[in-house]
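tool=predict chain=A
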Amino acid sequence: MSRRAEQVDDLVARARDGESRAVARLVSMVEDGSPQLRQVMAALTPHAGHAHVVGVTGSPGVGKSTTTSALVTELRKAGKRVGVLAVDPSSPFSGGALLGDRIRMQDHATDPGVFIRSMASRGHLGGLSWTTPQALRVLDAAGCDVVVVETVGVGQSEVEIAGTADTTVVLMAPGLGDGIQAAKAGILEIGDVYAVNKADRDGAEQVRRELRSAIALADRPEGAWKPPIVLTVAQEGRGVDELVSELDRHRTWLEEHGELVRRRTCRAREEIEAIAVAALRERWEGGIDVHDGLDALAEAVVAGVKDPYAAADELVASATD
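tool=predict ok
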């Protein structure tokens, strides 16, 4: 066994023993695209697949970080190990995460049963970082019972979390126009559980009524999961126990109906596809002949000699020879 392989195995073993520094190092290797990433994923995969992945999304100002922190508190009361991936907007200067979410969760910083990591979106659309699936695998294999993924909070484009989480929690709040924008934002398609946060404010019941009506009108197949609506005041921890109960109920439903395996299979398929496309793009960008060929194909399309599909087929063939 090579020294590098030994180092990876040692890191994985320490992470599985709950050593936060080892977990942090593995997540950093994921984010940095380490040359050892293949070895890391090979070592982690047999130990993954146990954690309940919960996505928390919603428009800016609904209280995503506060709700995530309150969820961690409630889950820890139940004795569960919790991982948090807080995907922050990228710094325009360094490309790194702005760390705002992690700062707001400092109450859990000294708890050995909680691992919190801010990840930069680095311009990736959909509210997540493109490395999120691999980072999730690290926390899963490291023994987390629940991994909470908090998205950037960029508004209506934030639907990618539905393909990444086992259960997606959509947060709304009175006074932010969420009820009116619900259909436009696409949240009726991605939410498994809805939480109307800041429910001590005027208008919370109206938001719940609008949501309930919209869910009732949605076209769902017979026997499909009907998303519940929970009222919360996350700042005070009110309603969070009910929210956790609904998360557990949804996890049970997923397992009983075979939906958990289906969702995770879709997730793995998309991850494999993304890795394959990235590898292919790397080959293209690394080869001068490919660049020259691409220019020639582009000129042929502009001249009307080739159509773009035929040109793409030719490019793929040249890159995989």
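Residues 259-286 form the longest helix (28 residues). The longest strand covers residues 52-58.
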